[in-house]
Amino acid sequence: MALSYAILSLLTRGDASGYDLLKSFEGSVANFWYAGHPQIYKELAALERRALVSHRVVVQDGRPNKKVFRITPAGREDLLRWLRSPHRNERHNSLATLKAFSLHLLPADEAIAKVEELATEGRKELERYRAIEKMLAPLAENSGAMLSAYLSVLFGLNYAEAYQRWCAQAKALLLKAAARAEGRASRARRR
Amino acid sequence: MALSYAILSLLTRGDASGYDLLKSFEGSVANFWYAGHPQIYKELAALERRALVSHRVVVQDGRPNKKVFRITPAGREDLLRWLRSPHRNERHNSLATLKAFSLHLLPADEAIAKVEELATEGRKELERYRAIEKMLAPLAENSGAMLSAYLSVLFGLNYAEAYQRWCAQAKALLLKAAARAEGRASRARRR
DNA sequence: TGCTACATGTAAAATGTTACATGATTCG
DNA sequence: CGAATCATGTAACATTTTACATGTAGCA
Is the CA virtual torsion B119, B124, B127, B133 positive or negative? Predict the structure, then answer.
C-alpha cells in the first residue's frame, strides 16, 4: 500500500528501472520508508497489473537489459487521491524505546552505558542527516520535487535531534536515580 | 522477535493474562510498539513453546476463566541477553513523510493545507503525551520499572515535539516557495 | 582472482492486520 | 435493550525479511 506510493512518487520524478528505484530508496526514500529489492520488484509487478505503471525493455550492451517503468495517468490519479486523503495518525515502533522500557532490569551503571550506546548510534544518524540537509538545502529552492525531498530529509533531521535530546534526558534521569539509590545505601551503612 | 521482548518486559512487572497484556499495550507499550490481540495471543503461545513463559488457569466466577502468564528464569535471561546486545540503528517508516515526499504534486495552497492537517493530527498526539508525562513524572521517582515506563513516554513526547517543529518548518518553506512562484508570475504579467 | 556494480527475479519464513467467532456481565 | 468490558482464540490475508538463484563487466 504505502510502498506503492513511494514508488509512484519516485516515478513522478522520471522513468526508472527496478534497480534505479532500489538505489533511490537507499539514497533518500529509505530515510522514511525502507524497502529491499524483492519488495520493489514485487510491488512494480503489482502496480503494472493494476495499470498504474507501464514498462518498456531497454536493451543495453555490456550490461543486462532493463525494464524501465513509467507512471501512467491512472497511477498519477491514484497517488494524488492518496495524497489528498485525510491523514490519520500512525503508530511508530521503536526498538530503542522498547529497550528503554526494560532498563530497570540492568544495574544503574550498565543502564547508563546502554543509553550512551544508543546516543552514539543516533549521533551517526544525526550527522548523516545534517550532511544530506546541507547538500539539499540550496537545491530545494529551485524545484518543487527537490523541495519535497528536502522536507523529507528535514523530517529525519528533526527526529534524529529529538532522539539525541531524549538520550540526554534519559541519562540525566538514570544518574539522578542512581544518586538517590546511592544516598539510601550510604545512610543504611551509617546506621 | 521484538514483540516477545515487549511481552517479557511487561511480565517482569508482574504476572498477567493475554487480556491484561493487551490493556497494557494500549495504555503504554503501544506508544512505541503496537500489537493487536491476535498477535499477543500468538506470541504468548510461541513464548510458552520456548519455555520463556508459563501459565496457570485462574477460574473466576461471573467472568470467563483466564490464563495468567509468568516469565520463567529462562525468559528473564533471554530478555536480558537482548537488552545487553549491541544496538543497531533501525529504520523508521513514516507515512507523513511519505506524503511530504509527494507534496510538489499539489498546488501550493493545497500543499500548505495538507501540512496544517498533519500538524493538527500531531498536536493531538503531543497533548496526549504531555498528559501522560505529567501523570508519570512523580511516579518515576519511586521505582525503576516506573522510570523505565517514564523514559518511554518521554521518547514519544520528544518525537511528537519534533513532529510539530517539522510541520512548522515545512509550512514556512512551502509559503516561501509559493511567494517566489507568485513573484515570478507577477513579473511575467508585467512584461 | 576476488570484489563491486549492474540487473532481475523466486521461495520461504516471519510478522502483522483484519475479519470471524463466542459468550457472560455490568452499566446506562 | 444496547453498548462496553472481560476473555480467548482461529482464519485469511497482506506485508516484510532473508535466503536462494543467475550472470556480465570493470576494477584493483
Answer: negative
Whose cell is 504476572? That residue is B15
Question: Is A70 within 7 A of strand C by CB distance?
Answer: no
Cβ contact B21:B9 at 8 Å = no
Give the whole-number percent of chain B exceeding pLDDT 90. Answer: 84
Chain B interface includes A49 (CB < 8 A):
no
Any atom of strand D under 7 A from CB of A95? no
Chain-wide mean pLDDT for chain A? 94
Please say if the pLDDT value at position A181 is more than 80: yes
CA–CA separation, A109 vs A174, rounded Å?
9
Contact A150, A31 (CB under 8 A): no
Place of cell 540492568: A106
Tell how strand A53-58 and strand B16-17 pair up.
unpaired
Torsion of CA B163, B167, B169, B170, to 10 degrees: 130
Is residue A178 less than 8 Å (CB to CB) from chain B? no
What per-residue confidence (pLDDT) applies to A74? 97
**Is B103–A140 a contact, with Cβ atoms under 8 angstroms apart?**
no
Q: Is B48 on the interface with A (CB under 8 A)?
A: no
| Among B149, B134, B138, B151, residue whose Cα is nearest residue A173 | B151
Quote the cell numbers at residue A124: 551517526
β-bridge mates for residue B57, sequence order: B67
Q: Which residue has the cell 528535514?
A: A154
- The answer to whether A60 CB is within 7 Å of strand C is yes
**Is-contact A87 B118, C-beta < 8 A?**
yes
Quick one: how many helices (H) and strands (E) in chain A? 7, 3
**Distance, CA of B104 to CA of B99 (rounded, Å):** 10
The parts of chain B modelled with pLDDT lower than 50 are none
